[in-house]
Amino acid sequence: MKSALVVAAVAVAVVVVAAVFGTRGPGNAAEARAAGAPWTFAAPMSQRRSYIAAAELDGHIYAAGGMVGETGRFLSVFQRFNPAANDWVTLTPLPDPTRAAAGAALDGKVYVFGGQTGGGVTDRVLAYDVAKGEWENRAPLPRPLFNEAAVAMDGKIYVLGGFSGGKELRSVYVYDPASDSWTESVPMPIPNHTFGAVAFQGGIWTFGGRRGEETLRDVFIFAPATETWRAGPTMPKPMELNGTAVSGAEIHTIWEHTYQIYDARTGAWSQGPEPLVPRHGLKAFAIDGTLYAVGGCTTELHDSQVVEARNIAIR
């Protein structure tokens, strides 16, 4: 009974805050901070979903596929968020409903790598040409993958870890869009999936994840120039299915009630303010001084179309 009352109270609070902030846009994140509520709502996605493939390109957020957790239904919806206008536009859908794929963007294209479809785990790679408004097939992954991470860096896209064949993987596959081909690089230090990954200070940083039944605090850093891995600053709290984004000298990573910020200037972690709607399986992006937390699944296992925004430009 107590749990039901708590859930009801949270739902009411979310509705009230959405009514106040939902259509006012991310610029009001600064006002919310000043009032002691550092998160506010931006325009929501049209569809409740988690496990999306997402990427930022030219200041816009692209969100592809995902699933509705309560039903397990995979989605093909593809949308673009414009932070300046605070709105979403629906684009050409994925050829097939897909969840738990990895997304990255490079040179005017948004890529979707692998994931799960109605036919099972796939090695398919799709590229959406923003100028043409069309999807095209590219060279497939070296193996089927889902719950992996993808990071664009120095003209290539690195696809790391993931799950396939009933186990977590250490693999690092490197995609070259110019030749539409794959090579394999030095594996990750540990098998891992459902982790956050970003390009930061000349390397690719991974945060948390899952191995077996263990949620991880590990941070590892890959240097593409030398193809070497090293341990990074261990997170204070474990995380998986976390949304992770870079803003200047900071890395922000969010998972349910936990929001951790790493400051490279001090080498220290701090705890950020709890999101209004705690979620896992979300994505995070930092654009023009605003942090966006997109979609995900709530702690009550209901998928969300919520997009939260927080002003991180003044710290």
Q: Overview of this structure, please?
A:
With 315 residues, the protein is mostly beta strands. It has helices at residues 2-21, 29-34; strands at 40-42, 53-57, 60-64, 67-68, 73-74, 78-82, 87-90, 102-106, 109-113, 116-117, 120-121, 125-129, 134-138, 149-153, 156-160, 163-164, 167-168, 172-176, 181-184, 196-200, 203-207, 210-211, 214-215, 219-223, 228-231, 243-247, 250-255, 258-263, 268-271, 279-280, 283-287, 290-294, 297-298, 307-311. The model is unreliable at 1-37 (pLDDT under 50).
CATH class: Mainly Beta
Structural class: mainly beta
Q: What's the number of helices?
A: 2
User: Which fold name is given in CATH as the topology?
Assistant: Neuraminidase
The CATH fourth-level homologous superfamily: Kelch-type beta propeller
For the terminal residues, how far apart are their CA atoms? 41 Å
CATH architecture: 6 Propeller
Biggest sheet details: 4 strands, antiparallel
**Major beta sheet, strand line-up:** 1-34-32-31
Strands, helices and their partners?
Blueprint: H1 2-21, H2 29-34, E1 40-42, E2 53-57, E3 60-64, E4 67-68, E5 73-74, E6 78-82, E7 87-90, E8 102-106, E9 109-113, E10 116-117, E11 120-121, E12 125-129, E13 134-138, E14 149-153, E15 156-160, E16 163-164, E17 167-168, E18 172-176, E19 181-184, E20 196-200, E21 203-207, E22 210-211, E23 214-215, E24 219-223, E25 228-231, E26 243-247, E27 250-255, E28 258-263, E29 268-271, E30 279-280, E31 283-287, E32 290-294, E33 297-298, E34 307-311
Antiparallel strand pairs: 1-34, 2-3, 3-6, 4-5, 6-7, 8-9, 9-12, 10-11, 12-13, 14-15, 15-18, 16-17, 18-19, 20-21, 21-24, 22-23, 24-25, 26-27, 27-28, 28-29, 30-33, 31-32, 32-34
